[in-house]
Amino acid sequence: MPIGTIQWIPHSSSRTGRRYVLTAARLRVAILLTALVITGLAGFFFHLGGRNSSTAVRSRRNEEMSIIRGELYQLSERVSELSSRLAEISVREEQILVAGAGLNMDFSSLVPAATAACDPPGDDMFRYIDDVEIELVLMERLAEAELMAYDSLAAFLMEKKSQLARIPSIWPVDGIFVSDFGPRIDPFTGAVRIHKGIDLACVKGTPIYAPADGEVGFVGWTGGWGLNIVIRHTDRISTRYAHCSAACTVVGREVRRGDLIGRVGSTGRSVAPHLHYEVLIDGVQVDPEDYIIREGSDSAVF
């Protein structure tokens, strides 16, 4: 049953118009088709929007991952640099421990305590990276401060070790102590005279060793000392070795503690083979026993 008529009138006179009879069935079909078209378009645009949103999310995640990779690369470079710095600190620590061992010092308090492990990263990677970066900054500053401290301490200990190495502190020969420093009866005249060194009786040819680092300043014959050797250890400290049978060094030679410098004899004003040993401070003889580190009762190091 018709419910209306639609008349189509063209603008061009050459074309004829048409009349459409609108029935209830046709109207329902038209409404259904229109609904289908609208639903299809809505579904299409919804799908297109979903794809665009998913693409945007992926793009944002890719961008975040790119930033994270860059941050992790920078952290890796800083960790590598920090590892090199810690290796350098380890070398300084070894130098200090070696120097301290020579000076009989205890550096156990310098050994760092174990540090707690880092917490695992949570969902917020950027927050975790920031926390790690803060820890790295603190560690870098600590490493730099420790390196400077170790350098300063190592330089101080090396200087002290060098100074101590030039102080005569060991027996120059393995012999028997027969005469100390100070007044004594002269074996030739019987008068009381000041003995300006110590005498150590030995078999002729017994090796004489340098008691400290230094430079040989004199080798030759001098009056009652006979063949004698003088070593300059510092600007103020010297040592003399008199009545030698032979000299095993020359003037100007650098010697180290324990180096062979001569052999015991009985040259000059001497009644038997022995070593007359003197320590001089600013050219004045002092008691050598004040500079000898003993092992046991009057025993020699060698």
List the helices and strands and how they pair.
Elements lengths: L1 E7 L9 E6 H79 L22 H41 L10 E4 L2 E4 L6 E4 L2 E4 L5 E3 L4 E9 L3 E7 L4 E6 L1 E4 L6 E2 L4 E5 L9 E8 L2 E3 L16
Antiparallel strand pairs: 1-2, 3-6, 4-5, 6-14, 7-13, 8-9, 8-12, 9-10, 10-14, 11-13, 14-15
Helix pairs in contact: 1-2
Question: What does this protein structure show overall?
Answer:
The structure is a single chain. This protein has 2 helices and 15 strands. It has 302 residues and is an alpha+beta fold. The chain has 3 domains: 2-67; 69-165, no CATH class; 176-291, Glucose Permease (Domain IIA) (Distorted Sandwich). The strands form 4 sheets. Strands 3, 6, 8, 9, 10, 12, 14 and 15 form an 8-stranded antiparallel beta sheet that branches. Strands 7-13-11 form a 3-stranded antiparallel beta sheet, with no helix packed on it. It is rod-shaped.
How would you summarize this macromolecular structure in one to three sentences?
The protein is an alpha+beta fold and 302 residues long. 40% of the residues lie in helices and 25% in strands. The chain contains two helices and 15 strands.
Low-confidence stretches: 110-118, 296-302
Question: How much helical structure, as a percent, in the residues?
Answer: 25-40%
Question: What is the mean pLDDT?
Answer: 77
Number of helices: 2
CATH fourth-tier homologous superfamily of the largest domain: Glucose Permease (Domain IIA)
Largest sheet: 8 strands, antiparallel
Number of domains: 3
Radius of gyration: 49 Å
Main structural class: alpha+beta
Task: State the CATH architecture of the largest domain.
Answer: Distorted Sandwich
Topology as H/E string? EEHHEEEEEEEEEEEEE
**C-alpha termini separation:** 137 Å
Shape: rod-shaped
- What is the CATH topology classification name of the largest domain? Glucose Permease (Domain IIA)
- The total strand number stands at 15
At the first level of CATH, the class of the largest domain is Mainly Beta
